[in-house]
Amino acid sequence: MPAEAQVSAKVNKVAKVDARVTAPASPPLTERQEARRRRILHASAQLASRGGFDAVQMREVAESSQVALGTLYRYFPSKIHLLVATMQDQLEHMHGTLRKKPPQGEKAAERVAETLMRAFRALQREPHLADAMVRALTFADRSVSPEVDQVSRQTTAIILDAMGLENPTAEQLSAVRVIEHTWHSALITWLSGRASIAQVKIDIETVCRLIDLTAPDAHE
Amino acid sequence: MPAEAQVSAKVNKVAKVDARVTAPASPPLTERQEARRRRILHASAQLASRGGFDAVQMREVAESSQVALGTLYRYFPSKIHLLVATMQDQLEHMHGTLRKKPPQGEKAAERVAETLMRAFRALQREPHLADAMVRALTFADRSVSPEVDQVSRQTTAIILDAMGLENPTAEQLSAVRVIEHTWHSALITWLSGRASIAQVKIDIETVCRLIDLTAPDAHE
DNA sequence: CGCTAATCTAGAACAAGTTTCAGACTTGAT
DNA sequence: ATCAAGTCTGAAACTTGTTCTAGATTAGCG
Known about the structure:
Two copies of one chain form a homodimer.
Chain A: H1 31-55, H2 58-64, H3 69-75, H4 79-100, H5 108-125, H6 127-139, H7 145-163, H8 170-191, H9 197-214
The structure holds a DNA duplex (30 and 30 nucleotides).
């Protein structure tokens, strides 16, 4: 029988979180395990904040989080998994923060653009961290699909929140997907120095106009 | 003084290619060097076609192309550089091919969507190659910016071609950028198995509607 | 308490990208 | 034809992600 295994998963920090955006708490973890996991994620974010993707070296993460290399790999089967998990973690924060002060815009498109720009500003404060997370996200192969999908759902939830929609139409979901595409890709161009902050802003605002197209009289 | 160094760059295969999409032929190469370069790109594409990004191993590329490892690195300073160059190469082909049979759609949005779907179908024929190229492209860091930018310009040219525009407005260029974002990101979701081909099609068609937004009476 | 299975640790080992180096080869110029 | 400078080769070395192993620990159970 298992050794460390009990304690309830203490997710759902933010009140009524949609089940679709809550991580599927697979095997419940011991307190010590939960603590290890947090230490690892913390070390990962910290190293990433310093030097971006390259600075997150597995041996360093292991050392910083006081865990053996093998253990690190037991928790996160690859560097990409680790960074995607780090992103999930950060996104949860972000979503919580964004919920508190909902965007002010009149129309849905404006609110979404405002929300994304707010998120973008947050990323600008830790550009290296953003680099590590976004690079990992787009570099992830099939073996990380579930986790990446989770991030995607969380992002979708944030956008739908901003739109103020309960039951989006298929067309609106398409628009949201395209917005997400633009969001990710625009971040990449910014991170690799091929687009300015202003440029990203324009792209976001441009793509958000798609929302008007799917619901000319959009509001809640 | 330089040793191997002369011969004119024999780019511009396709007649009147816009200067903005022509590689800035830096130091002209010897014929033997040009041949080496081609062998390398060929080996790269071949290995990529087999097993995607991971199958393109620098030692293997070197061996396949009958070049020493050090030489390979002299031509392409990193695996990412190599794969991005491979993409440039493939894109040139693609653009040439696409030029021949221009899209039929009435409206600009339709023509762009049709063109991109055509390109998408081409990629589907070599999914592993697509994987290698696209992953490299989005993973590229600042050191590869010039090359990635070149790919971006080439892509822009293809889209503008499909739109049939000579002097796009700033607004239209924004739309094109957003379309490119969507194109790249949608490819990624497809390659990582998180979106179906049908899904990609919808996303492309959705984003192309932005064009109508910037030019309601769009045509040539 | 004492047992058993799972987990953790330290460290070696392996894989693939990248760098380095000494010597052989080419090239353009004298 | 010869020379100087730049290029190519083959091979070793180095780096960092990933895997493997043997032994120490920990957790849950009777």
